[in-house]
Amino acid sequence: MKQGVYVRFTAILLIVGFMIAVQYNTVQKPESRDTRDIWAIRQDLSTEKQLHSELLSDIRDINETITKYENLQSDSPVQALNDTLSSLRKKAGLTEVTGPGLELIVEPSLEAIALGQNVTSISPDLLVRLLNEINRFNGQHVSIDGKRIINSSPIRDINGQTTVNSLIIQTPPFDIRIGTDTQEAAEKLYNHLKSSNITDDFYIDNLTLKIGEPKNEVTVPGFDQPINTKYLKNTSKGD
Amino acid sequence: MWLPLLGLILGISLGLLTDIQIPSVYENYLSIAVLAALDTLFGGIRAQLQHVYDDKVFVSGFFFNIALAAGLAFLGVHLGVDLYLAAIFAFGVRLFQNIAVIRRIILTKWSERKGTID
After folding, report:
1. A193 in a structural domain
2. Does the predicted interface ipTM exceed a cut of 0.90?
3. How far apart are CA A23 and CA A25, in angstroms?
4. Which of A130, A153, B69, B75 has the fewest other C-beta atoms within 10 Å?
């Protein structure tokens, strides 16, 4: 008799506990309400559409690769694989790239020289800001003072010296090379950089950013250090 | 003694871990159901202490009270009268009464035991 009572109480308490926990969850984490207005939603929609078209073009590229593989299967699969490998290496930034682009030169500002102020190394924050500005307008391949920027490139302060890829960059002047896909993109980037206030940000730090005219041929060096793939794993076959 | 407590902890952790959320429209129903469940629970404890506990009454009361409370709230929403307040009031009062009775019984038992020891 006594045992049965306990079992029933336990079952009821289990249900009560569950209900309380669900209620707690609901009260503590309410679903966030959508408070965007029509323009914000339109903007989001346009970004999504852009993403959509980018994904579509990616799919087309991959389909092309597949057809290439299929065509070459009898001839030389090695050649097809090598093609893919080299295009991936190019994408990752491991190869030297020559093509349309811009060249920026970072120099100490004339005022700083005239006033005899000490020109220190450029701050990492400013470099990151410039890089974000370049990335926003499709600067595909970037090197700072000969150090190629890849997806995992660190830009940081080590013992008071600004480093890119853990290599110290020299005190200004030095150059920044940007490679773009097309001449048009290079011009767009040029206009954007000219109109943005990034040059003012450089001026605050006693530096000037000289933005060179778009060129047909800019050579961006490749990334020459080993890539640290600590967190990457092989996928199992078939994935 | 510890089995019911284990059940409670298990239920709470189950609810927290599954991370279930209900739409905010039904929040009222759930809160009232929780109240009804607590009411039945304390009623059951009281009955057990007063030696009038009955399995059928307890289990049927638990589900019936929950259903009634949710039904009342549902009716209230559709009639435009806050009927769930009636349920909250009824269960709230009974909860206090039951807890008061439980307290008295436990106090009496405690003082009796003290009396026998002395």
Report:
1. yes
2. no
3. 5
4. B75
Q: Residue B73 sits in which domain range?
A: 26-117
CA distance A136 to A155: 18
Q: Which domain holds residue A138?
A: 97-220
Two structure tokens written together for A225: 């250090």
* Chain A: closest CA distance from residue B81 (Å): 23
Chains A, B: CB pairs < 8 Å: 104
What's the rounded Cα separation, in Å, for the pair B89 and B95?
10
Q: A7 by DSSP, 3-state: which?
A: helix
Buried/exposed B82-114: b ≥16 CB within 10 Å, e otherwise: ebbeebbebbeebbeebeebbeeeeeeeeeeee
Q: Which residues of chain A have pLDDT under 70?
A: 1-2, 29-32, 73-75, 238-239
A124 neighbors A130 (Cβ within 8 angstroms): no
For A14, which of B7, B22, B38 is closest by C-beta distance? Answer: B7
**Cβ contact, residue pair B11, A15, below 8 Å:** yes
Chain A residue whose CA is closest to B62: A12
pTM over 0.95: no
Tell me the per-residue pLDDT of A147-174, one tens digit each, with 9 for 90 and over. 888 888 888 888 888 888 888 888 778 8
Q: Does B101 map to a domain?
A: yes
